[in-house]
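To assess whether ligand presence alters the predicted conformation, the chain was also submitted together with adenosine-5'-diphosphate. Input:
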Amino acid sequence: MEMITLHLLILEDNPDDAELAIKELERKGFKVKWTRVDTKEAFREALAEKPDLILADYFVPSFDAMAALQMYRQLKVEIPLIVYSGVISEEIAVECMKLGVTDYVFKDNLSHLGPVVKRALEEMKIYRKSRQAEETLRESEEKYRTLYDSSRDAIMIISPDKVFLNGNPACLKMFGCRNEDEFIFLTPAALSPEYQPDGALSVEKSQKMISIAMEQGSHFFEWKHKRVNGEEFYSTVLLARMKLYGQKILQATVRDITKYKKLEAQLRLAQKMEAIGKLAGGIAHDFNNMLTVIMGNASLALMEIGKDDTLRQEIEEIRKAGERAASLTRQLLAFSRKQIVQPKILDINKLLTDIEKMLGRLIGEDIELLTVPGPALWKVEIDPGQIEQVIMNLAINARDAMPQGGKLTIETDNADLNENYFLEHGIEGEKSGHYVMLAVSDTGSGMDKKTLEHIFEPFFTTKEVGRGTGLGLPTVYGIVKQNNGFIWVYSEPGQGTTFKVYLSEVKKDTDLEKKEQTHVDDPGGSETVLIVEDNDLLRNFVQKALQGYGYSVLNAENGEDALMVCKEHDGQIDLMITDVVMPKMGGREAVKRLQPLYPQMKVIYMSGYTDNAIVHHGVLKSGLNFLEKPFTPKGLVRKVRKVLDE
Ligand code: ADP
Ligand code: MG
């Protein structure tokens, strides 16, 4: 017989009756530890001991079973209470049960006591267990609820017939619903644009995704969603099949990945630009050499032939075509960020005034040009040629967008941008601070969303073949990025376009511009010049041009060759004009070797292309004289004279 230890509280005024009950229980195998009480106070105290069971006489003079039951209820004690009595009728006993007594036993039938107690204890055990299970469930529900409520991902429950059953707070926020009621009245179809980025109908594709999730248990995919206000965004969706209240349901976890998508697109664009930039840079090097020769020889020919020579016009055309080609290579280099830049601290307003006339000619008479310079404009540090290129490219695009005429407005202003601005405009990775804003607006055709997505991609153009190169905006983008700025575009079809370029303020004073073009009256001279250039045609052209102005010229094909030439030459060398990148020995190295032999010798580097030998991160090392390819004979001799005279 198993022994059950029982901690018993007996409410009984008759000690003999209590004895009897204990004996009976012991007979039934209980090991009883007991306390007998017959007053309210004693009962209350004994309750605090947490007995396993209460056995209460129905009628105790000072405090009977009913009073005990009342207290027991008030105190919300969860201990089985068994009434035992010799005097009560079966009706009263049943009444007791209704009031919450666990069971009853008649004193004249004590043999029932054992089984009744056993059952009561058993029931209590089951009850406690289920209470505990309930508690655990409540806790886990609470845990889930917290996760659900505080999740940053939208979590929604969808029935298989595609009805929303729930949406967490993040879900309401993501889709722009005021409350859950508004959300559950929506259909999944209302939360997607008609088509997905791959061209599939959203309704059809979502059905497919749901089927897969239902079949496999879960499914993860990318999606394009739509908020209640119509705004679209990229997302990832995890669909998980679950069972809720016996029904198969889907839980969808949606994450807004617009931010990552943007970064990804930026990265892709940057990679594309980098690749094309490399290609362009490589071509430009050779191309600039050839252009220098073409334009140079054309210029030399023009100097040699008479004013009325019949060939004059043709040669003039060659030179002009060369210039146009040169502006194209400049464009390519700017875009590839291989252009050598010489940043200056400048006031964009002043620069605007300088180029206003030229801009007017560029856009033609049908378009009204309005400049609105901002007051007390902060300074920026940028190569003036580059910012000119930015303005020109934007102006040309504006002109092209207004074939029937219109208005082109160029504005500048100071802009103190804080984080909020970047958040609101969806611009990533820029620092808050002082910027100078340059806005170019037109009243032209404007652009739709699709076009806007691609405008900064190299070679993207909507213009007919021969008219657009698709390099204008990538160039602008390249320049602005190179100068740690950013661009913001606003455009709508038929509403015109505004490009805003932001460049960081510099807190230095405008360069005391050593007047770059100290006017050279007579560029001729008789000094000795050493030319080091591996391209024969170019070397010959430079030689011819310099000789034409009276200079003595020595020739070398590369650095090594230059050392030989100098060994054989006795006398001074006043100036060395050298290419930077050459086989065998480059320009920088040759200068290093020759400079000690001719301490007075000046040096001009020629290049069309950034190279770390003379530039650092695309910026010319200070103190170096530099002649950008392609150049004309005049440009060459002016530079030569200037450097010699310094
Ligand atoms: P391109 O001018 O050679 O086409 P861009 O890179 O300068 O190349 O411009 C790319 C495209 O962006 C243009 O073809 C045009 O569709 C669009 N675009 C640029 N600026 C404007 C503008 N101001 N108004 C309307 N569309 C523009
Ligand atoms: Mg353009």
